[in-house]
Amino acid sequence: MDNGKSASWSRSWGLGLGIRIRDQGLGISGAGDRRTYPERPIVSVGAIAIDGDCVLLVKRGHEPLKGQWSLPGGVVEAGEELHAALVREVREETSVDVEVGPVVEVLDRISRDAGGRVEYHYVIIDYLCRATGGAIACASDAADARWVSRSDLASYGLTTKAAAVIARAFEMRE
């Protein structure tokens, strides 16, 4: 396999079940899953789920933004429609069911490593959502999940982009 990058690949046979590819510095965790050091941006969806004066937040359990509060959401899988991906991601992370509404914002999240290389690049489509059921419980890659009052958002250390998109969603709803 020649992808134009030098890498030291190793293969190991796992009890005759197949080939396991181990990354040697390029961030490849398996066939087709290349979230770190991607060749192109990764399409993702985010939910601004509002219930009354509260918004649904998750504490990220994995990079990027590990340990930070953010909106629930994630990567769109091949063959999956955007709305279906968002419903699935919110349910996986929070156990909350949502109805997907209009697009609030389309933005990108680009993180670079110490050497200036693009480590993560997500194009995120954030949707206004309404909770329709389910009892909140963190799951999947979320370390925590909470309904947070609009007046308490500043204490959650949200990124500037996340805070702005939440504010816009509340404006759209009013």
Summarize the structure.
This protein has helices spanning 82-94, 160-173; strands spanning 10-13, 19-22, 42-51, 54-60, 69-70, 73-75, 97-112, 118-133, 142-149. By secondary structure, it is an alpha+beta fold.
Properties at a glance:
single chain; alpha+beta; 7-stranded mixed beta sheet; 9 strands; globular
Describe this structure in words.
- The protein is an alpha+beta fold and 174 residues long.
- The protein has a single domain (42-173), classed as Alpha-Beta Complex (Nucleoside Triphosphate Pyrophosphohydrolase).
- Helix content is 16%, strand content 40%.
- It contains two helices and nine strands; from the N terminus they run ββββββαβββα.
- It has helices spanning 82-94, 160-173; strands spanning 10-13, 19-22, 42-51, 54-60, 69-70, 73-75, 97-112, 118-133, 142-149.
- Strands 3, 4, 5, 6, 7, 8 and 9 form a seven-stranded mixed beta sheet that branches. A two-stranded antiparallel ribbon has the order 1-2.
- It starts with 9 loop residues before the first strand and ends with a helix.
- The model is unreliable at 1-32 (pLDDT under 50).
